[in-house]
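FAQ

Q: What does a record look like?
A: Structure on top, sequence underneath. For example:
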């Protein structure tokens, strides 16, 4: 499958942003709940989506049926068997969204990107253009 180099570069940059946010959340809140017994400790794998308490990942959506349109949904999960109260989950998710919003201009200078609420989740919307192909 061919992926345009500019799309690959955009995706790589987005993944670096999410890795940094994961690292910050793990440092701040990683001891909030016990880790799922089948989940490696934070930093034990090469991919922060696969270890530690939090899993945070972008997931592109065309935005069909959404008032916010296309964008990258911010996938968020707490890897624990403990009961996570809805308010606590919301606080974690909102903290992740705020960190992503804060760091978007650093990772994507000159682009108009923002984090918005889209139903029960957060989404990155804005300028995803790749310029001249």
């Amino acid at each position: 499958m061919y992926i345009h180099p500019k799309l690959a570069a955009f995706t790589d940059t987005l993944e670096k942003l999410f890795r940094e946010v994961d690292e910050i959340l793990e440092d701040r809140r990683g001891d909030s709940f016990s880790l799922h017994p089948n989940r490696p400790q934070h930093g034990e794998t090469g991919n922060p989506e696969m270890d530690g308490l939090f899993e945070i990942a972008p997931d592109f959506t065309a935005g069909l049926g959404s008032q916010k349109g296309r964008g990258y949904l911010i996938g968020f999960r707490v890897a624990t068997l403990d009961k996570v109260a809805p308010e606590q989950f919301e606080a974690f998710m909102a903290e992740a969204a705020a960190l992503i919003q804060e760091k978007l201009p650093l990772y994507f200078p000159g682009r108009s990107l923002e984090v918005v609420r889209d139903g029960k989740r957060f989404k990155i919307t804005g300028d995803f253009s790749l310029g001249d192909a």
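Q: Is there anything notable about this one?
A: The two ends are 17 Å apart (CA to CA).
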